[in-house]
Amino acid sequence: MFSKIFPKIHAEGYKFLVISGIITIVFYSFSNFLGLIGLVLTIWVYYFFRDPDRVIIEDDNYLVSPADGEIIKVEETDGPKELGLENKKFNKISVFMNVFDCHVNRTPCAGKIEEILYKPGTFVNASLDKASEDNERNYFKIKDTYNNDIIVVQIAGLVARRIVCESNKDQELKQGERIGMIRFGSRADVYYENYQPLVKVGQKAISGETLLAKK
Q: Maximum distance among all alpha carbons in the chain?
């Protein structure tokens, strides 16, 4: 119960907690009302950077969600041109993370990271189609245990200013393992082949636990 009310937080969150705590103290020196606003901000920062443990299925026949949030796209599309896959067809599922969702990202499958590619960009609303091409983003090309290409794309959102990558090229991943996070509103895209989707647009997803697709 305690861990649900006060979950552990990601290492990226500590400096923001300190900053919001200082702001709260300064606000209180001016008025109780401003101090209350600062306290609410501090609580929000704490929960934004929460990093709860998840129950992973650990089954190579499934892909799990890389992010908490809402499923906003389930479609067939070309692969990312940034990885030279624009002439190859993939299924794609997009998960939109609002500022109240947990922003720690996980790998949908077990496998080896063959490539990591970071692309700087703009900061339009992550729920828009153009975010996949215009926004700051980070690509993971993962070879799963069936030798399929699974692509995970971290996409910064409207107020996001940093994508945090916690993985390395050639790293062997377990399904649901943490690969990074995005600060303050964002989206995660999963490109996959040879799996059938199990989710639909509008459905809520939980990182590491919601089953996105099945062999």
A: 61
- In order of their start, the domains of the chain are 2-48 (no CATH), 62-214 (2.70.70.10)
* Residue 72 near residue 28 (C-beta atoms within 8 A): no
Structure tokens at 154: 């971290």
Cα–Cα distance for residue pair 104/186, rounded to 1 Å = 11
pLDDT in tens, 41-94: 888 888 888 898 899 999 999 999 999 999 999 999 999 999 999 999 999 999
CA distance 154 to 9: 20
Which of 20, 132, 186, 207 is the catalytic position? 186
186 has catalytic annotation: yes
Of 15, 188, 197, the closest CA to residue 105 belongs to 188
- Residue with token string 């996105």: 212
pTM of the model: 0.86
